[in-house]
Amino acid sequence: xxxxxxxxxxxxxxxxxxxxxxxxxxxxxxxxxxxxxxxxxxxxxxxxxxxxxxxxxxxxxxxxxxxxxxxxxxxxxxxxxxxxxxxxxxxxxxxxxxxxxxxxxxxxxxxxxxxxxxxxxxxxxxxxxxxxxxxxxxxxxxxxxxxxxxxxxxxxxxxxxxxxxxxxxxxxxxxxxxxxxxxxxxxxxxxxxxxxxxxxxxxxxxxxxxxxxxxxxxxxxxxxxxxxxxxxxxxxxxxxxxxxxxxxxxxxxxxxxxxxxxxxxxxxxxxxxxxxxxxxxxxxxxxxxxxxxxxxxxxxxx
Length: 302
Description:
Elements lengths: L1 H15 L2 H15 L6 H4 L3 H11 L4 H8 L3 H22 L3 H14 L1 H7 L7 H28 L4 H11 L3 H11 L1 H15 L2 H13 L9 H16 L3 H24 L3 H4 L4 H24 L1
Helix pairs in contact: 1-2, 2-15, 4-14, 4-15, 6-7, 6-17, 7-8, 7-9, 7-17, 9-11, 9-17, 10-11, 10-12, 10-17, 11-12, 11-15
């Protein structure tokens, strides 16, 4: 019975075809059904979303990726470093435990949950600390998927500008794509390409953090789907897919992206909200409030 309800909810997701609706229908499903840990949407996690992002890569060519990212890479690097160290300083000012401040700063600067999960074992973060940071970022990402497209429309941003803004200002890759996809397919392509520039910073973050804390080198746990995303771009460039193939790839990508966002929504738990204390949430909000207009200024005026 639970799988029938799940299928009906997902059919509604596909009918609406909106990223924000996908994640919130997932939340409604979770609140009504309360699926246990063995349920399919909880066991597959973000896998459908990662598949959708990889397929999206197959609709992008290397010349396009270069034209989009060439002017932004130095600024993305400066943006990442500025966000990360600002978060650490704010955490110290607010008196937040250094591990939680580090997790939130890494998530805000680079790629949300992926960055936090990667550095958590290195800084010896406790499960509860990671849970708090993940829940805060989840809430902010959900807000971004809803309100960023509305703000972008109000400010009359072009597809390119909105995609770039989403890539810089939103934490998780999934939410970056979800927000941009709500705006337009072109915005999603721009966002996916530029988000890569932030995500690759996970490599030096892991290496430097591990060296400083443990004084030893460690193999970097770089997200594999990002590597497949790059390979998909190379494949499209090499084979030069025609319009029919590209249209099919876009449909497949959107299907998996919607499924992934819906599955993320089904992982919502009310009890996790109760574990959030005020100061970490204040840190995340202040940092995000600083990042959003900074990213907008960078996109619009540089």
